[in-house]
Amino acid sequence: MAKHYITTFDTRQNMLRQNLEIFYYEDTNLQPVSSHRHEHYEVYFFLSGPVNCLIDDKNYPLAPGDICLIPPGIYHRPAFRNEKETYRRIVLWISADYLNQLKRTHSQIDYCFQLALNKKQYHFRNDSGTAQILFGKLFDLLEEYHSSGAFHEQLLTCYTGAFLLQLNRIVSEYSSPSAYRKPKALFSQICDYIHSHLEEDLSLDVLAENFYVSKYYIAHSFKENMGVSTHQYILKQRLYASKSNILAGTPLSEVCANYGFTNYTTFFRAFKKEFGVSPRDFKDSCQSQSGMTEKE
């Protein structure tokens, strides 16, 4: 995650902006936070750290990729198991007025919050593939939040809507019979493998050999669960990993080679198609914002 997106944590619980606020926190030397509630909606995406989340008197141990949904008026607080480890999370605040505004276009866009309220189900554990999808959409929103380009407000609305609709789809599966979710176990293992081997050969033949299933089964699983082909999914994960490496200051030629792009032209075209900007322009933009030192 880019260092210039980090927000310094403070204890305020009121919104300073009218529609939404989004924060990326990366804290050490953790201080206790008292139980609190607020008038806005909160989406909490956990990345790492020695933390449980207490919501409405329930204690939820957290794992990377977990989502907590906190509607207005619900008491909650973090509980730290070790105050010396780094605690990382993305927090999205949405005002009630803004959510009502979004409902004019998508009448059920508050589905996830209504389910949380009605069933008192505030915590959702995600497999790595699902968590990666949510992280990607939150990262898009976080980037635009810190942008000042043309059509900024319109893009914020689009990214917020896309994230909430994706979240609604995921949350709705928790109310489905367990038999519906069981086939995802193998699919989740394949996603885990992909995320851990992005720098290696990830052809359908290799995946099929590693998981003792046909490549046609894998292709069908990705189309059914992700709505994209296996190749498109792997390409997207490699591009997001490339983006993170660029943000960390890795030379573009090294990023290109690390993630299996046969040449820079192929990498350039794929990156620009996905993010709307070339790798070089993206790196230059990051340098101008954060003072990152050029390594090339």
Give short descriptive properties of this protein.
296 residues; alpha+beta; Jelly Rolls; Arc Repressor Mutant, subunit A; 2 domains; 5-stranded antiparallel β-sheet; 3-stranded antiparallel β-sheet; 12 helices; 49% helix
What does this structure look like?
- With 296 residues, the protein is an alpha+beta fold.
- The chain folds into two domains: 3-179, Jelly Rolls; 183-289, Orthogonal Bundle (Arc Repressor Mutant, subunit A).
- 49% of the residues lie in helices and 15% in strands.
- The chain contains twelve helices and eight strands.
- The protein has helices spanning 96-103, 111-119, 128-145, 152-174, 178-181, 184-196, 204-211, 215-226, 230-247, 252-258, 264-275, 279-290; strands at residues 20-27, 41-48, 51-55, 58-61, 67-70, 76-80, 87-94, 123-124.
- Strands 1-7-2-5-8 form a five-stranded antiparallel beta sheet.
- Helix 7 (204-211) packs across helix 8.
- The longest helix is centred in the middle third of the chain and has 23 residues, at 152-174.
- It is globular and about 50 Å long.
- The protein starts with 19 loop residues before the first strand and ends in a 6-residue tail after the last helix.
- Residues 291-296 have low confidence and may be disordered.
